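USER: If only I could read backbone structure tokens as easily as an amino acid sequence. It would mean a lot if you studied the pair and described how this chain folds. Here is the record:
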Amino acid sequence: MQRMSCLACWIVCAAMIAACSKGQRDQSPRPDTTSASEATAHLADYHNGLSDTDRETFYHLSEGSEMIPLALLQALERARTAQDPAGDGLVPFMDNLARYGFIPDRKYDRNPAALPIGMTVERSPLTSRVMIGFNCTACHVGELWHDGHRARIDGGPNMVRLNNLLADAKTELDATLADTGGRRERFLVNLARHRRDNDGLFPQERTVASRAADLATDLDLAKAFVAYLKVIPTLKAETATENGYGRADAFGVARNLLFGGNPKNLRPQNAPASFPHMWGIETTAWLQWGANMNSVMERNIGQSLGVGAVFDAESFAATSRLDHLNALEHLVYKLTPPAWPAEVFGPIDDAKAARGHDIYDRQCANCHERPFAVTPSGLVVYQLFPLREIGISPLIIENFDQPVEIDGKSVRFATAAFTVLESLKRRYYAANQIPEQTQAEWEGRSRRPPPEWKPIMRSTLAEADAYPDSRGGRVSPAKPLAGIWATAPYLSNGSVANMWDLLTPAAERPKRFTLGSREYDVAKLGYRSTPDPKAPAPAWEFNTTLTGNANAGHVYGTTLAEADKWAVIEYLKKLRPGDINKPPLHPPDVLTRR
């Protein structure tokens, strides 16, 4: 709903621009996305796999997302918040986007508008307007603070609240257009100026002839845009459980986006999932929290739709940029589990960590460091565990299994969604004349060779017995824990604030804790979980008693002696790939037997 309202307002405003005085002085301050707290904190020269040049591409390469016109947000004003400097009047909406958990970034060629990490900007093929969008790094680049220093974690989960940005933009646009005084006038004048400035940053180079050649695709995309606007209200189909920081009910959104044209398919979004870390994905056999997808390209296309790419459900034309998705995928392959930054967080107690190594080897490694199998091409099939054993909230898994109605027939969501994603992929290949060799490279077929590794999205519970690794309702993966210290909050729904609480018996874990601060607890391995008056983002309370927020999972290690728990935590700071090697439980040929 938010996107439709914002874009509809933009269309109304654009039509009114001609009535404004072109000579009026710009009354909006220049946006400054850096908060006072961040301006005084030192970003350590710390990397976990990407160079500075890699980072510039990673942070801002567009996936084809078209969320809202850049000029609109640049011209918009908002009411002050507790995180803003004291003063009277309105402030630019773009000031302190860290209030939504975004990480500020500087201006450079890939980021000409000095947008935060994960925000993209390019000219839309639908409207020819310069549009803000998002890519994977909005959710998958984190930052940890400690004693005035910051460590950037590429591929780590970010504490971002994207939905709140869109909702607030709608609120401020409604207030702006309803205003009969200076606010609306300033907005319209500044919108015109920012549009001219952005046109200079992104000149249109296409000729009339080239546009005529693409007319059919443009018409398809225009239809997609109209259809998308009509569907957007379904995205809000009763958000039963608030996401908060660092979570999203991605499959709930996908269901409503892809199939919400039929009201029978709409379901409440009540299963927010924590953003997972991204290192190790190249060799991860089954992707996503429920280990339900094995195809790189289809997974990435789905993600591009989730951050604002649009498509036509009949022709499958889309704004998704598969070439850029492939570039981002290969940057992710460069990521390494982050090493403990001693210069930021202090040294590791090596003696305590050595004792923790032995405990971890006995208590944890048989699940987390021992895969189910490893394929000849190097794909790692992690061990999976049934819901009844691990005890986490089942809604992420159970909701995924709920069918959708298509043409009066009940179809498994996994089957229906994968069909759409495959169709989008094939349309892109055909429309852009992508050679077969390039398709193979983009899909990683050397790592996932056909026909043994057929691209598929499996229905987590309904099809569990059809696959060797998931037989018996095994659905939740135990991944290796190198770099896990940088990925709090923990569990698939982010319901446990830090590692110490995860090693505490479930009944004794905090039922409520606060998120919003980036201050890192170097002892317990997690963000500060009490209100932080210096945080650039407002505090949000995680309530584990709400639907989908249960924190009763992972009871392993909770009966250890207190000193042993601290030793394991110390070792987790030091754990690196290969420290503990356990042979696979099964030979690779077991994967081919059904």
Summary: Residues 342-409+468-592 form one domain. The CA atoms of residues 303 and 530 lie 32 Å apart. The two ends are 44 Å apart (CA to CA).
